[in-house]
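ok trying this again, last paste got cut off
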Amino acid sequence: MRVISETGEQLGVMNIFAAIDLAKGKGLDLIQVTEKVEPPVCRIGNYGKYLYTVQKKERKIKAGTKESKLKEIQVGFNTSPHDIEVKAGQAKKFLEDGDKVKVGMYLRGREKAMGDFAKKKVELFLTTLNGLIEIKTERELKREPKGFSMIISKK
């Protein structure tokens, strides 16, 4: 295996037992850095310190990424145009935060028979929202047993 010292200089390829003896002689550990290359690479160092630096790198990567959530906006059958503008503003905030938005319109009773009117309401919401921020359709407007729904995200 290829051995690297605690200062970063290469000590060359040596037997595993010789590398372990060398590390123990310095009061340190033999840490396998990678096994994907031939011969495997090992480093002499403090294993606790090595684990700490690896965890620190993982935390830094995790802090840089934001997990997107799915927020839901419900548009009612009798929602007024002004209320649609208010809901579009709220959806804009969600999209700017990096979340996806599920637009849902739930129909009850006789409203289920007027699917075309419901689709026009959802399209009005989308055109209002598109005037505020560019959107991308993740899932098309889909008929469900209780109404319509679709998922949108920021372009």
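PB: full thing came through this time. Residues 47-64 form the longest helix (18 residues).
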